Amino acid sequence: MRIVLGVGGGIAAYKAALLLRLFTEAGHSVQVVPTEASTRFVGIATWEALSGHPVSTTVFDAVDTVNHVRLGHEADLIVVAPATADLLARAAAGLASDLLTNTLLMARGPVFFAPAMHTEMWNHAATQANVATLRSRGAVVMDPASGRLTGKDSGPGRLPEPEDIFAAALAAAGQAPAGSAPAAGLLAGRRVTVTAGGTREPLDPVRFLGNRSSGKQGAAIAAAALAEGAQVRFIAAHLEVPPPQGVDLVQVETALELRDAVHEAAKSTDVLVMSAAVADFRPGENADTKIKKRDDGADPVITLVRNPDILAETVQNRSAFGSGPSLIVGFAAETGDDSGSVLEYGRRKLERKGCDLLVLNQVGRALVFGQDSTEVRILSPKDDPAAEPPALTGSKAEIARHLVQRIAAELAGSPALHATS
């Protein structure tokens, strides 16, 4: 495989030399493209000696080969390690200020970033927005490791170990490291899509209608599916937890954006798990400017309109997505009242939605949302209506493992419609 290894200007640049060695010893041809700033940490002579190729930082070398176009076009994989905050920002903005950013703009194959920076820089809203932008365009951005940084401080921002970057980057290109075992697990060879988090419906530039969902359960399900060998697409609305490493991340904000992402994913997935908390309603109008308090004291009137029922739509139109998902799992967050119990409402919802499984839990201010533990019942249309499904109680990770095992049992004997390569 032809790999471009971009090197950003951070102290962790020395680790990229070890990563380069891993790629070359695995038989890949590697062209190193450092930034000018990175050569203050590791010089060009080192990269040329280790890669066996001439190295440049500028578009004005090898002009006769149109180098700034050729490298991106020919690369089967581009890996940037370390990816500094500045480099992520330039890549997200589409700048072409040196050979590396030109190469990123010309990329035809997978692009993989391994960030490294101080914790405050990684957590800064600007960096997180740049990461979200890159991921939304299809790039894989690995989460940094936590640990000792340049000075005495510690925290997230440390460059992952070269061996971890090596394996994750090859996985992003659809390859496994030489000598690695084939994928194993209950969901090996399956494609699983998980939605998670709460949608936000804008009212004006600063306000939105939302809910209390943290996304913890959806993230746990995605992690459990990964652990069982699945290839996981993770469609994330607002989360209070980081997405699991190794997922194909798709970020959305509103119910309508989630609907589009789910319909697209349904074309190429075996299992669809709809654990996102989708707003039932959205403001009828999204004001272009902040709605202000009126001097006359009158209260604003906000008209709500119904959002589409994404789960029911997807079930009803399953055949429209080609072979369609083999299994669609819905979630129901319910509260009981004088008209029915939580279980009764769950069974009605299962019948109304038509999904294959429904994960039912009781919600409230101190229940489920944002908590680390939960209690659920998994309902199926095949259940005996006279029997009460058992309650599953435990951490959200434990519940996720139970659900993944149930999904695998439901799929047993069913061929992988969208088998991973």
From TrEMBL:
This is Coenzyme A biosynthesis bifunctional protein CoaBC. Residues 192-421 are annotated as: Phosphopantothenate--cysteine ligase. The lineage of its organism: Bacteria, Bacillati, Actinomycetota, Actinomycetes, Micrococcales. SUPFAM superfamilies: CoaB-like, Homo-oligomeric flavin-containing Cys decarboxylases, HFCD. Pathway: Cofactor biosynthesis; coenzyme A biosynthesis; CoA from (R)-pantothenate: step 2/5; Cofactor biosynthesis; coenzyme A biosynthesis; CoA from (R)-pantothenate: step 3/5. Residues 1-191 are annotated as: Phosphopantothenoylcysteine decarboxylase. Its cofactor is FMN; Mg(2+). One of its GO terms (molecular function) is phosphopantothenate--cysteine ligase activity. Residues 1-170 form the Flavoprotein domain.
